# Entry
Amino acid sequence: MNDGTRLSELASAASSADAGEREALVRVLWPNAYRIAWSILGDHGAAEDAAQAACATICAKLPSLSDARAFAGWAYRIIVSHARDHARASSRLRRRESLGFDEVAAHSTHDDPSGRLDLESAIARLPESLRLPLELHYFVGLSSAEVGTALGLPAATVRFRLMIARRRLRPLLSDSTASRATLEVTL
# Structure
């Protein structure tokens, strides 16, 4: 039984008012919810907050889901949405706090690109448009159609972004002198 089927079964059982069933659903959903939020936010505390808020929203809206088989895509879309909302709110707060501190913002805090990068840091350097499909497909185990549902994209676009992400990761993992500028180009 794949993860999507298991989540669908748990969602069907949890759609009743039984708190124990919802807790079981959140226990299974939590690791991927946290990983997705961390992928977007890059901060463990913020990822935990966003994942908790997303799980609470999923449980609250679960009775409105008409087809439990669509649960995985529906839930991951809520998680992505909460994490992005949290990122936007954090960005606005940082901008307000940084007003008047231009000289501090001018200093780069990036690691030395000549150092050997590991997979996690290489993935973290990809733009969100490439990183999210990669994380959802390879680490969460969703198909390209399910990733598309979660991100509001056609499956073909997801497959294209996965291809581009793999191409951008290859030089980072095989050559430690890859230029950071090549990573920052977005679709």
